[in-house]
Write a structure and sequence with these properties.
147 residues; mainly alpha; Potassium Channel Kv1.1, Chain A; 3-stranded mixed sheet; SKP1/BTB/POZ_sf
Length: 147
């Protein structure tokens, strides 16, 4: 099975993704079709025999770290010099979006650790991170209400 995002492709084990109680488990349990009109495969030969999931909204770095969580039960939160508060806030929102409890717990723990490490009270960094969480979750909640 493959996961694609922003031109990046990860070969993943279906059994690993299906072991979670999440969006990915649901995607793995059925015989969903890889449809060219969804731009999953662009007609490549591997589309015939492999399943593909394309995640369009989340950014390849975030998807990479989420997939790392499936395999390693952890993820790296200080990549490319990004603010760990912001990074973990987005990871929390992604965990909520795809219903990945382990990732949600990790993001919450790492977010809390970053607050302690950087001795962040109500600084602009913390306020920005909180806004990221609420904006992402509000978008997700409004999308699910439409369905």
């Amino acid at each position: 099975m493959v996961v694609r995002c922003e031109g990046e492709t990860w070969n993943v084990h279906r059994v690993i993704l299906a072991s979670s109680l999440s969006y990915f488990a649901k995607a793995c349990e059925g015989n969903f079709l890889v449809r060219p009109e969804l731009d999953l495969c662009r007609g490549s030969a591997d589309c015939i025999s492999r399943r593909a999931i394309k995640l369009r909204e989340d950014g390849s770095e975030m998807v990479h770290q989420m997939l790392s969580c499936f395999y390693d039960r952890n993820y790296e939160d200080n990549t490319n010099g990004k603010n760990p508060l912001d990074f973990n806030a987005v990871m929390y929102a992604i965990a909520d979006k795809y219903d990945v409890p382990l990732l949600k717990d990790l993001a919450e723990m790492k977010f809390s650790a970053a607050i302690i490490k950087y001795n962040t009270k109500m600084t602009p960094r913390l306020v920005k991170a909180i806004k990221i969480i609420f904006t992402c979750l509000q978008h997700l909640w409004s999308e699910s209400a439409k369905q």
